Amino acid sequence: MVTAAIGGERPVRDIVPGDHLCLTFADDAEQRPVVTEYLSAGLSRGERVLCFVDRTTPGIVLDWLASTGVDTGAALLGGRLRLVPAADSYLASGRFDAAAMVGTVRREVDASLAEGFSGLRICGEMSWAVRESVGTAELARYEREVDAVFAGRPVSAVCQYDARLFGPDQLEVLDGCHRGSVEPPPLRGHDSLRLVPAGRAGRRRLRVIGTVDDRTHDHFVAALDAVLHRPGDVVLDLSALDFIDVAGLRALANAAARLGGHRRMRLAHPAPVLCEVVRLLGWDRTPGLVLLPEGDVA
To answer: In the chain, how many domains are there?
Structure first.
């Protein structure tokens, strides 16, 4: 049996039995493809799929799965797919009880294997914890205790944490209670340019990989627009950037100027020639734009 790896960030297609991973997402566009692929892959492999939902309703999850060709009616009828609201799972006793929830997960694992399923996939949406004012320490205790349920068994889990609801410090603690994290899908893709969210927990950055020129300019601008609405500073990792033209640099400066307040656009690992061009054009004086040649994003 394939065993889970410890630590690191990996795409959803590489999730294996024993994995207990954290998905930190900044918006619905990051959440939907990961959850959909994770659940549909489990169904195709003969695993039971158990999804604890909250902000994302059962109807929304069913629509996601149906859009990929999953026969959700048959999956529900056959017991291969179950969608359980937080009120009937995490909060079944009227409040969050970590020990009770760990027991629930353990029973679900045992029942699924006893019924002949090849394994169990669990996907839990944790937004209820903010509404119920569950402390980070209590959530962390639960995540650490439930981790032991998956070790060495044909079971995996992805816990979903919304970065719009949980702060970076909270996410860093909770992310550390998992065996690794799920890599979000690229924001934009092109033969010559990829823009990939990277970094664990709430300290997310956007890796710019390839070339920014007239062929990829629109993709680049759209990706910048997508990250501007997120809270906190915008961090762009330019270590894998091969080339950026003046129009691309202008787009960076314009995006930084739009941030406002105390927010900053931090350019990590810019090439020396890029820094020199930005200074020659005077864009290093753009409010909110910070060049970090050593890659320090603190």
So the answer is: 2
